[in-house]
Design a protein that fits this description.
The protein has about 200 residues and is mainly beta. It is built from no helices and 22 strands.
Length: about 200
């Protein structure tokens, strides 16, 4: 992205741990197929780019793991779905299976913030390119007690009396629907549901 970097590539797997009250800065690019894990009690202010740079090898996506108790205040760029796969952000401190996390997304002049809350834990993830809507994110169990965030494939379902959801709303990311419109787990016939 313009006015960013230079980026340091994460080619396979890397873990950055800050165990003190320091702040780590930098520009890190997660190559396709690679995983970056941020851990520790300090503040991680790295900016993260999902490079999505090896589609010819059928490696379309990367993974960012934000460990439990880790404060991440950087910005994320390039988070997307491609080739039937999605980049992923794994929040190990949010237990998807214990209760569905509350989620909201807001966009402010091209910079978006995804807020995930569960009990006393709230995580804000800032997207530097902000090219998302409130339905651009899907949550699921990561299979290890955390929550996995992905960008679902693009699709649109509309009925004849459709209205458009706002970009700042609570979203049920387990189903990819605007939680403000849910009644007993169903979307009323007057809403438009867009994912992607």
């Amino acid at each position: 992205p313009a006015n960013t970097g230079p980026w340091t590539e994460i080619i396979t797997t890397a873990t950055i741990s800050e165990g003190s009250s320091h702040t780590i800065d930098g520009w890190l690019a997660i190559d396709s197929g690679a995983t970056l894990t941020l851990t520790g009690g300090g503040t991680h202010h790295e900016n993260i780019l999902f490079a999505n740079n090896f589609p010819d090898n059928h490696l379309y996506t990367g993974t960012l793991v934000i460990a439990s108790g880790t404060l991440f205040t950087g910005e994320i760029y390039g988070f997307t779905a491609s080739g039937g796969f999605s980049d992923s952000i794994d929040l190990t401190g949010i237990d998807y299976n214990s209760s569905t996390p509350a989620v909201s997304y807001s966009d402010n002049a091209g910079v978006g913030t995804l807020t995930i809350s569960q009990g006393a834990t709230t995580i804000h993830i800032v997207f530097g390119n902000g090219e998302y809507t409130n339905l651009s994110f899907k949550l699921a169990s990561d299979g290890h007690g955390g929550t996995l965030i992905t960008d679902p494939p693009t699709s649109t379902t509309t009925d004849s009396a459709a209205t458009t959801s706002s970009d700042s709303a609570n979203v049920n990311l387990a189903t990819g629907t605007d939680a403000g419109t849910l009644v007993d787990g169903t979307v009323p016939a007057t809403d438009t549901t867009t994912t992607g």
